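Suppose you are handed only these lines of text.
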Amino acid sequence: MRLHWFSRAEDRLDAWVTRQHQELVLDGRTAPVGPCPDETFLEGVARQSKQIALSDPRVDHAANCPVCMRRLLELRSQHQSRRRRLVFTAAVSCCLLIVAAFAVVSWHGTNTPHSVDNMAAIPETIDLSNAGTLRGLPSYSAEPSPLQSVSLPAALVKVTIILPRFSRPGQYMVAVTHDQSVNDPLAHGAAAANGGGDREEVSVDLDLRKSQPGAYFLSTTHEQDQASYYYPLQIK
Ligand SMILES: [Zn+2]
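From them, the structure of the protein bound to zinc ion can be written out as follows.
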């Protein structure tokens, strides 16, 4: 912290000394030695080119000659504005790249469902109308669910879920999960429930082609409900 302040203070001191010296030179109160170097040389100094040795007598001249100093200041401000433009251009290109990447991603995003639609999804119906649910994260010692038979093939399936009686209408998120959490689901989809009365059903496409056979959970989450309902599920 203190070191940082120190270096900032030193920078300020350097800048002040430089300014004092510049004023002295521009006022013509210094005595330059030798003739004025050519424009190319001054440009090199302004760009802080590594090819110019600080021991070069022309550097000493330029640092003490009002004509060369004025030209150096002009060249340096041109160089800096060119660099600023370059940085700006680079920043703009970077933004454009990001925008392009997002466009590609969202293009894929909007097109993926079409390719899913084009493939033959296997229709499956899961009847949860009388299901006992495992809500949230209860212990496994909870009452065994009567839904031992719920299973889905490891394929692209169009699942129609008959929701438990008295389920609310609205948008539902359906997911196949490893455990009783919707983080990192194997597959998921969202759709509005339709039906009415005491029977609501929701249909979603679930891509289970990459799933290993085994025991999973099917979860349903109502859009206005933070809790998810979990049903034991077998993938065959
Ligand atoms: Zn000069």
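What can we learn from it? The first helix runs from residue 2 to 26. Residues 138-142 have pLDDT under 50 and may be disordered.
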